[in-house]
Design brief:
Shape: globular
Helix content: 10-25%
Distance between the termini: 37 Å
Order of helices and strands: HHEEEEEEEEEEHE
Structural class: alpha+beta
Mean pLDDT: 87
Radius of gyration: 18 Å
Strand order of the largest sheet: 1-2-10-5-8
Length: 188
């Protein structure tokens, strides 16, 4: 299990929109509802009716599924610029959360990937392998379970130092919020 808290609480507190609704304790069951959405492009549609208007139909996104999708993408499209998948709401295709965006990235052995300067800050968390994160003339060497952050509007370069093994990185950013506010920007 990897537990990485990436919260939007500072913004929610700043806008004074934090509150709690007391309710029953959530029952944890072994139903594995996320398996209903496992194959891409396939969602439950009982009696030809899709979804209920649930904002978050999936609360668990198994790493094994994301890792498998990355490996399959790398094999099926060897020339793709970045082997990256996004975590989305399977019913709507939109970001899985309203304020924060999440993705998984695979760096091929020895790969260097320059990312454009974008408005949102980013959090990088190495799941497997190793990575070097270069931002603002600073380089951070990350091993599994290491995390680093980069500010917005800074070009970032990711590098897999291993000549033989891929690196898998979880990324969180503020893209959904920036897009809703109309301030999302990519500088080339």
């Amino acid at each position: 299990v990897v537990w990485l808290d990436v919260l939007d609480l500072p913004l929610v507190y700043y806008t004074e929109t934090s509150y709690a609704t007391e309710g029953r304790e959530q029952a944890v069951t072994g139903t594995r509802l996320e398996r209903n959405y496992a194959p891409g492009g396939v969602v439950p549609s009982p009696v030809f009716t899709r979804g209920s208007a649930r904002t978050y139909p999936m609360l668990r996104y198994p790493w094994a599924d994301a890792r498998s999708a990355l490996l399959n993408l790398a094999e099926a499209q060897p020339d793709v610029e970045a082997v990256q998948v996004a975590y989305v709401n399977p019913e709507s295709g939109s970001d899985c959360q309203n304020i924060l965006g999440f993705s998984a990235l695979m760096l091929r052995p020895g790969e260097t990937l320059p990312l454009p300067a974008r408005s949102p800050a980013m959090v990088f968390h190495v799941i497997e392998g190793g990575a070097e994160v270069c931002a603002d003339d600073k380089t951070f060497s990350l091993a599994p379970a290491d995390t680093c952050c980069t500010p917005g509007y800074v070009p970032v370069t990711l590098k897999n130092p291993s000549p033989s093994e891929p690196a898998f990185i979880f990324i969180a950013d503020e893209s959904p919020l920036h897009k809703k506010l109309g301030v999302y920007e990519v500088r080339t």
